[in-house]
Amino acid sequence: MRRMLELGLVAAGENVLSTTLRKEETLADLKEDGTIVWRRARKIVDPAPVKDEEGGEETAVDAADVETLVFNTVSEFRLAVVREKNPERKVDNGWDWVKYAGVKLGDIKRRLPPEPKPEPKPRAKREPKPTPTPKKRKKITDDERGYHAAVKRIVVPAREKRESRNASKNINIGESFDGQGDLQMVTCEAYNKRRTQPFKVTVTSGAELVMDFHAHLCSDEIIGFLGGVYDDDAKTLRITRALPARQLVQEHAGVEVELDPESVPAIVETLTAKGEGIVGWYHSHPVFATQPSIRDIQNQFEYQKMFARSDGESQTIAPFVGAIVGPYDVRNDSQKSDVRMFHCVDFGGEPEPYELKVEHAGCEDVSPDVLRELKGLADRFRTTPHAGVGDSEPLAAIDLNATPVSLTEHWRDGTTRLEKFEHSLCARLPKSWQDETKTAYVGGIVKYLKTAWGVAAA
Ligand SMILES: [Zn+2]
């Protein structure tokens, strides 16, 4: 747990951990030192259920009726919860049953770099080698050396890198998990005065709306393409729309996503009909930072190779971007989701991720296609009651490849996920719109979503 905190995969906070036993959810706090704090309501004679309101400031429970339990490990916490119902239980695997912001801790753990191996025993007759120089790249200039050193890459053993590089040859976009370390995130470099962004990128409100809406619907990673055009004269990549794709069923869908290839032809057809093409891809990191994983970087790089072309002045350019949406990261600055666009630059070593500055297309309107797309997404991920069971049963997802998010769940600061969602959508609408127009537009979509998903009005 402490390593996950140190690497920023999880953040300390109140009620950020949850575990469900017999449909009853128990919340716990995660502390900076990695311990877990559960404020358990003491059993009282009166059987009236006393539960801490999700994220509520005040609880109805008297301080004296709550005992504070501190655990050093996730499994100890889970075991204590299980023992409430089954005092005989001796062990329980917390990694499989405790969630952080809705994602299984075991899945998040897979993002950890491999534990540093213990020092191998020095063999007899072998001089201990001096520590190798930090970077062993071929023929790089001092300038580049400085740049490479600045890339805050988390060190992965070389062999694993090579393995995953081979794996990426079969161009699956998304993060299929086939080597530990693939899911580690790499901090993007920023372009500056000396190293300037090779082309401009603009995005429309409509494209942002669809990406953000799609990402908010699932607690699993979602995936799609970005459509638009590259303007050679203006050296500008114009992203005009986002096209949701289907993902394949994944065992660890909260942290990895793979595209269903069958959903691609329809996307290409839509774009061709509009005289546009695929200019990028997007996916979500439901509760993580929007930095690309090593696997994301490899996929992006493969795409750039596929889409590379001449700019007419004997230069090769690859106008293709990767976007990562972070809908429910509790560390976001605001309720507006973080959307990061990046591409890869290869300086003879290996592709390094560079963040792309994106300008708003300055659109005054949102195409009616967008509203249709949003409603289609709401329908695709909607939930339906199980046939023949009571209302209290959980709803089943129509799209079985993804887990719809629980919209009424607490997100942060007393805000539900749905409230956060609405706010983020409003922030995507054209700046020229009046606040009332924005609220009405988003209100309409949210009403549609709530009806489709059977979410009771607050
Ligand atoms: Zn990713």
Estimated share of beta-strand residues: 15-25%
Could you tell me the number of beta strands? 21
Per CATH, the architecture of the largest domain is: 3-Layer(aba) Sandwich
Unreliable segments (pLDDT under 50, ≥5 consecutive)? 47-53, 55-61, 121-129, 131-180, 387-394
Number of helices: 12
Major pleated sheet: 9 strands, mixed
CATH topology of the largest domain: Cytidine Deaminase, domain 2
Termini gap: 35 Å
Pfam family, one: JAB
Protein name: MPN domain-containing protein
Biased composition (Basic and acidic residues): 108-129
GO molecular function, one term: metallopeptidase activity
Describe the structure in your own words.
The strands form 5 sheets. The protein has a 9-stranded mixed beta sheet. It is globular. By secondary structure, the protein is of the alpha+beta class. It folds into 2 domains: 2-49 and 60-109, no CATH class; 185-458, Cytidine Deaminase, domain 2 (3-Layer(aba) Sandwich), CATH 3.40.140. The model is unreliable at 47-53, 55-61, 121-129, 131-180 and 387-394 (pLDDT under 50). It has helices at 2-6, 74-85, 94-97, 105-109, 142-150, 158-167, 205-217, 264-273, 294-307, 368-380, 417-426, 435-453; strands spanning 13-21, 24-30, 36-41, 66-71, 98-100, 103-104, 189-190, 200-203, 223-231, 236-244, 277-284, 309-310, 316-317, 321-326, 338-346, 351-355, 358-360, 383-384, 396-397, 410-412, 415-416. Helix 7 (205-217) runs antiparallel to helix 11 and helix 11 (417-426) crosses helix 12. The structure holds zinc ion (ZN). Residues 175, 283, 285, 293, 296, 324 line the site of zinc ion.
